[in-house]
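[INFO] parsing input record for D-alanyl-D-alanine carboxypeptidase family protein
[DEBUG] input buffer:
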Amino acid sequence: MRLPGKILTALFLSCLMVFGVIGQASANSKYAGIVMDAKTGKVLYESNADSLRYPASLTKMMTAYMLFEAMESGRISKNSRIPVSRNAAAEPPTNIALKPGDSLTVDQAIRALVTRSANDVATAVAEFLGGSESKFASMMTAKARKLGMSRTTFKNAHGLPNSKQKTTARDMAKLSIALREHYPQYYSYFQTSSFTYKKRRYGNHNRLLGRVKGVDGIKTGYTRASGFNLASSVQANGRSIVAVVMGGRTSRSRDAHMADLIKRYLNNGSTGRDRMLIAKAPGGARTALAAMIPGSEVPLPTDRPEAQTLTAYAPEQPVKAAAVMNTAVPRPRVAVAAVDPMPTASTNAAATETASMGGWVIQVASLPTEDEALMVLAQTEQKAGSVLARAVPITETFEKGGVVYHRARFVGFNSKSDAWGACASLKKKSISCYAVQQ
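[DEBUG] output buffer:
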């Protein structure tokens, strides 16, 4: 049977699109991709979605998230000025040629991040919010855990090459959704087409904006190790999806592949009501981070005396960081486990069981704010390596002298010997801790 030419052409183009998607996944070892329904969390397409990849400048999505959180909490405003250090000014392109001693507003910084993807601005933001880039990276990683980005580790704020800075396509999709859900008042920044600084205009690297119907952000990224990355948000015809492509061979092929994914899967999205998919990590409107003060350290608590029994609590001695000594204390919160808000059924069951089980826990800090506790948990996980591989990080509150503090703990130890042994291993790594029975 002979088919009309138009039908043959349509079939041929359809095959090209299908095999184009398959080809991206099979022929390129760096490739990873995912399309997620932003209304329901249903995965519409995935390939290597949980494989570790380098985020490159997708990192700046989290840098922006941290700025949005600080603005919403009232710690900073759009007009707050960010100083530029010699370290920040020295970052390689892409940048906006900042000089040591310069300053720019938070508003300018966000626009420079989402359009120019400026590395010098990202480092200036890190030093402004975290005191140092390494501390800010720990804060970013802790925030990622709270958002359910269980396989993401940040080592810098810009995404320039670092072998330990890893993420997954699924984690980046979760961050894309979180930015939309948690900060709708700021999300429009990602639609900025251009940005002008010191009379020089910078266009947005995201070429799908204004060219593919419904695309309203989010971010591009590239390093030689990562390949060409792109996270996209699409809202059209009552449907809403996010898509992430990582490891593209060229920016053009990456963009074409993303456009194909959007065309192919948008109509599979739900037209139902929007609902919150990513639990918002509490930041506290009055939270103050010790790391926000350059040169300050977030100390771990001193070891509990060895002579004391570990089966009952002795009076706890919380550590007050210098930067929060005179600040208002956030309201008490219930214990929070760092459990993925959108996990698989098996992951959710295992994490819930571990977080709620009795037995023994290891405590590494008691601090005035949850953000500080989260930062210490992230730093401890990174330093501990395999010692805490099966433990779940949580924060818990307790009150002492009318003041609320936050314990940084790891749960999931079945016996006293397991907890004592893990704590002994941590101490060999210069991590202060003690074990206690729940």
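[INFO] The chain has two domains: 30-268, 296-437.
[INFO] shutting down worker
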